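Please, structure for the following, as tokens.
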Amino acid sequence: MAMRKSLKNIYCPQCDGPPIVEEERELYLENLRKKNQKLRDEHERISNLISSAVGGPFLMNPKLAQPNSALMPNSTLRSPTNTCGSPIEYPPLPIPHQENNNNNNIRNSMNINNIPIISPLPLENYVFHHDDKEKLIIFEIVVAAMREMVELLKVNNPIWVKSSIDERCFIDRDSYNRKFPNSNRPYKKSSTTRIESSRYCGVVPMTAISLIQNFLDPVKWMNMFPTIVTKARIIEVFDTENLGGSVQLMYEKVHVLSPLVGSRDFFFIRCCRQIDSTIWIMVDVSYDLFKEIQSPVPSHSWKFPSGCIIKEMGNGQSMVTWIEHVQADDNIQIHRIYRDLFYGCQTYGAKRWIVTLQRMSERYNFAMGATCPTRHDLKGVVIDPKGMKNVMQISQRMVKSFCEVLSMTDKLDFPTSSQLNSENRVSIRKNEEITQPKGFIITASTSLWLPLPFQTVFNFFKDDKIRPQWDILTSGNDVTELARVLTGTFLENNITIIQPYAPNENNMFVLQESSIDDVGAFIIYAPIDSPTINSIINEDDVKKVPILPSGLIISPDGRLASNKNNVENASNGSILTVAFQKSICANNNSISQQQAVATIESILSSTVLKIKTALNCLD
């Protein structure tokens, strides 16, 4: 009683104010209880939402859980057979194990510890402020996208309609909108807006966990799809301890390897999650960042829930089913020679992603020596295995660098004019990186249609006896192949070192990589001098070796798609893209630039003429 009386008479030594009375204290505590209860209710709502999608209980943080709070009932996330017809079950996740110790700690077994968490890369000029409310919206989008992907993977889902022309499956819009009335929708359609949907499956020579690791790392993602993805960045990585898996906000730019086709930019959420010991799922879904990005021009591309499901098959192989579902409004009109490819969803369709993944996974296995390290035709040049690995590394960088420069529609220093042909594109950039010659680099490229199958065109360019007829690097002289390193089971997928028999340039070599698959082919090459070749095969650091590639991209023209299974009636046309790069003056001189443009445009035009003449395809 004496202590209570003293407390009533206490005063604040700072302001001489009255003490906190009991009524105020009780009111303060009551407000805290209400606030805590509101937080618990919100947390329980999110727990129910996540549990309904992931197929397992979502545990509250023990510090937030009320005493004797019961776990939520277990639910099951199931999918019938996938698009390849093999059954894939999504069992309920294991109930989190509760350890018997003094602290009664609860460990969440849903956390996938073997998913690498990648640190977000800095994205220039972008500022993001994701508070708890925005993060909640992001997780709701992820859960809805995951549920949608599982539904779309059902084989007999009436949402998928088979085309009567080429038997390609696409999504029926009316059925889709009724089934998924999702509020996460793209911008309003315009007259040029186009929705593309496709699915495809195939066996990939890589384990499921290795694929997921490549998908989560933006650098590995670009290396896995160098002919599709030009740029990729992680904007933000979210804490998903209770969700299980990895969720990150990403940006990517995808393109077709031609200067006549514009690129597409996507801002999206990527979620990777392990369903059981052999099944993984990756879901991409666009997220509206326009209000947060300090850029006046929004993206004209939108990803509906897309991605893939991966089933481990053993022996280093996985069955991958891919779904692409996007809305695009290309900012430039599609060139006439690419219309069939675009309207047939062959440019960015699921088949292109799967075939590219198969090809690059095979190349990776050969680079690691896991497939057949003794099949390399060395011919006395590349002897040491490490030197052979160097050749594959610098060649991979050469291919990636070449593919990046073909996205020329965004920044043309010399757009189509009276000085250039209507399909020719020329640009100049200043390079400061050590991986390419420093100074100004000029690039010239064009695309043209040829009335020949793309395999025939590829074989033409691979013939060393014909090479002097079109390649300016040979100066019209014969060439000899000094070394060959296989990058795939098909013998024409390889890296070669070629030497032209030029009388005054015996120290000049050509490093070349060739690749062909069901959706196209490329031949990319670059001149390299003798000291550089010696440094590569002698195990020196190849990361700093400057290389400036040129090359050829060959693809089907997309016509007669309904007869693809009939070799005789298959598409007899192809699209050829030719590109040259040349290092010019080190100072920004307008006269020298104009001269450089005239020179490289002349090289481009004359090379195209020589190719058409040799193929007997003159207009």
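The mean pLDDT is 76. The longest helix spans residues 22-54.
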